[in-house]
Known about the structure:
Layout: H1 3-16, E1 19-21, H2 24-32, E2 36-42, E3 48-53, H3 55-67, H4 74-98
Antiparallel strand pairs: 1-3, 2-3
Helix pairs in contact: 2-3, 2-4
Amino acid sequence: MCFARLFLSHKIENEMKTYLTSDINKSAAIIAAGGSLVGLERQSHRTLLFVLEPQDRCAHLAHEFESGTLTVNARCMVESLKKLKDAVFTRLRDRDRDDTPLSRDAT
């Protein structure tokens, strides 16, 4: 199997196991409730996606967040939001300095 096909197969498999959202508040709530940030991914020139796992748990937590029924510790939510902001700004700073694209390795 060629490298490009293997890489694409690996990427598709990983995307099926992760939950993606551009909503920083939803991401912070999911992390505060037990999800894990595994990276950042560029969706467009101005939009980043937060890559979270495990996918099924994060999707359930996202549904609870959207319906207003998700309960999280306030301190955990604030800490999660701060870490997400730090990750975004660090990644943007590094990208501007190195002119490298955003990828999943930014945690």
